[in-house]
Amino acid sequence: MDEIRYFWECDNQIGTTVEVIYDTNNPDNAKINTFVEMWFLPIVIGAVNLIWYAAVIIGYARKYRNRNQ
User: Is the confidence at residue 8, as pLDDT, over 70?
Assistant: First the structure.
């Protein structure tokens, strides 16, 4: 097993030219410039935060409404 495995299938084959984004001060931290590579984790974290904040706001609204009745 000399290959790196990911959770999703990679569209690029060995030898394919790809655009890589990296910090010149830290070239070991590089990413292939694809939508999934760049935006998957921020979208998942943002969606979880939106669900969390909605649950907190609904909980406080119910608590406030029940206290005023």
Answer: no
Average pLDDT, the chain: 84
Measure Cα distances from 33 to 1, 25, 40, 61 in Å: 25, 18, 12, 42
Residue 4 counted as domain residue: no
Distance CA 63, CA 69 (A): 10
pTM: 0.60
Question: Which ranges constitute the DSSP H helices of the chain?
Answer: 35-67
The two tokens of residue 62 are 């119910």
Domain annotation covers residue 62: yes
Could you tell me which of 67, 6, 61 has the C-alpha nearest to residue 34? 6
